[in-house]
Design a protein that fits this description.
By secondary structure, this protein is α/β, with parallel strands linked by helices. The protein contains 10 helices and 8 strands. It has helices at 47-57, 68-76, 91-96, 119-124, 134-142, 157-171, 179-182, 185-195, 205-214, 224-230, and strands spanning 8-17, 34-40, 60-66, 84-86, 102-117, 148-151, 198-202, 219-223. Strands 3-2-4-1-5-8 form a 6-stranded mixed β-sheet. It has a two-stranded parallel sheet with strand order 6-7.
Amino acid sequence: MKKKKWMITVLLFAVILLSLTGCAKSGKPGYRQTIRILSGSENKVLEEILAECSKETGVEIEMTYKGSVDIMNTLKEGAGEYDAVWPASSLWISLGDTQHLVKYDESISISPVVFGIRKSLAEKLGFVGNEVSVSDILDAISQKDLTFCMTSATQSNSGASAYIGFLYALLGKTEALTEEDLDKEQLKEDISTLLAGVDRSSGSSDWLKEMFLAGDFDAMVNYECLIIDATGKENREDLH
């Protein structure tokens, strides 16, 4: 099987809804003193930065965390409780904003989805110091040497991105997938074998990180920022 490095880039978007009046320093007439943001859980790692922003602007920031699919569905329902949405990818806005509520959007950060493996296990598998392909990971899983955690592809952007990334890598493609591609028996066999290595799943990227830290798992597929955040935490082994 052709080996192919795998990295999926996920754009994080801050999107302002029609209902948002504005964001400015305290005391300016006609502007809200609170902004209510419906956000993907992966953005919890930015709470210190958001607190600094709130302090400097005098605008209180209220964050509500949900999975990407839940954000999409909330947009479909009108998102009346929120002034802004901040999903992991613009995909969920395109699918969910059927009422055309979103008026302004801006990409503010990028974090790839990566495969983080306990360093001692990565060394044992020969992954440290070498380029590692999805084929290598598939081989380790098929030999029962590796299991991993990832979010649900039907609930979370990181899980959907990982799933699509696996398909592209297993096919060795860079152009758009076709129905003919997805009907290939080898792909069906390979993706089934790979996903059989999923030990635990979660509906949220940040909840997946917390579950990983609380348990005893080999590896985790998640945003690089959350892999970094989990590395060295709670006396746990570093992730490679």
